[in-house]
Give the backbone structure.
Amino acid sequence: MYVHSVYFTYQSQIPEGEKDILIADVYELLAHIPVVRKIDAGRRDPDADREVNDKDFHVGLTVYFDDKQGYDEYQVDEKHQAFVAKHKSNWASIRVYDFVS
């Protein structure tokens, strides 16, 4: 499997509801891309207060593919492109972690 994890940090002035819209769009847009095998998204756990917990993000996304080719197809898929175009102006930063399992 090829695993793609993204952690979104929002700009401070963005309304809280925008985070829920992004999560909904994960399931309405990204989940329907044919190469996506599994997808999970949600808000950072506010109770995760151990020292090792990274608290510098608001929403996390993890997408699973069969292989790197599937990931490459996902990146150029029109649904993925629409998702990024719709939401990117809200982000202060994103961090991406890709790995093979």
